[in-house]
Automatic annotation (TrEMBL):
This is Co-chaperone DjlA N-terminal domain-containing protein. The lineage of its organism: Bacteria, Pseudomonadati, Pseudomonadota, Alphaproteobacteria, Rhodobacterales. Residues 23-139 form the Co-chaperone DjlA N-terminal domain. It comes from the Bacteria. It comes from Pseudoprimorskyibacter insulae. InterPro entries: DjlA_N (IPR007791), TerB-like (IPR029024).
């Protein structure tokens, strides 16, 4: 299942992903940012579940299953550059901005901005074709300030 998705994501001419594959790939980015500081705790997992539940209108069980599948995909995915570049080619801009907002929710879930998470956010934002300014605006929108 994941090998086929990874092959489609890293294909030279990546086509838009079907909705379920896009959900899985974008959730895998949330997992990657949560794991960036080497502390992937229950609070971050619950935040990812809530984001998926709200974003995709999933039940708590469905959101948890999506996150679990995304954890597997993330661990098998190529380096961050290739993974996010492939997502950029396959996912519309509006969805990528929404993912940046969701990633900031995960980064800020524990109330601490770790240097590793900040560095990965800057890198992923750039790789997804989102400006630093738009990322900062997304962070302000989700943090309320």
């Amino acid at each position: 299942m994941f090998a086929d998705l990874l092959k489609r994501l890293t294909a030279t001419n990546a086509a838009p992903l079907p909705d379920l594959d896009a959900r899985l790939a974008l959730t895998a980015l949330l997992v990657r940012i949560a794991r960036a500081d080497e502390s992937y705790d229950a609070e971050e997992q619950a935040r990812i579940d809530r984001i998926c539940s709200q974003r995709y209108a999933l039940s708590p069980f469905e959101a948890s299953k999506l996150r679990h599948d995304a954890e597997t995909l993330e661990s098998e995915a190529p380096d961050t550059f290739r993974f996010t570049s492939a997502i950029k080619a396959a996912v519309p801009l509006e969805d990528r901005i929404g993912v940046i907002e969701a990633m900031w929710q995960v980064v800020l879930a524990d109330g601490v901005r770790d240097p590793e998470e900040d560095a990965l956010m800057r890198m992923v934002t750039s790789f997804l074709g989102i400006s630093d300014q738009d990322s900062a605006l997304a962070r302000r929108r989700i943090s309320g300030g």
